[in-house]
Amino acid sequence: xxxxxxxxARYACRYLKGRKLKIFLSIADCIIPPGDCSPGAGDLATAxxxxxxxxxxxxxxxxRFLRLIGIVEFMGIFFGGRFFSKNSYPAKIRQxxxxxxxxxxxLRMGFFGLKTYVSMGYYSRDSIWxxxxxxxxLVFRHHADPKIREICQGRAEVxx
Length: 160
Hints:
single chain; two-stranded parallel ribbon
């Protein structure tokens, strides 16, 4: 183990792993796409924060959240002929906009929750703050679980 590896804590995703992680990253990259100064939300650091937060959700809600990710993946067939994570970027955007404006309240609310979690996972990361000209909190608060600070500060290696 190198010195650099020993400096980093590790966080293994418990809920977003394997296929669900791949789908989540694809969705996150559409919700907050990479830009000139921004890496976009489709990376393991965002997924790590979201996975950490999912542990605090009631079991029933967590299962629904993960089910929604699977539904989004399957619905991609109707928007680009392939599963969501394999569709073109325009097809993905078209699909997410359709879900966001869907007359079915359940789909709209599910997408709102997904979008909220992606935004939380992305904007809570210290490395993102300069891209939005945010200097950080005025008063630092200690967190009951230091793992979340390690993830947000980039001091934890997230693994799917």
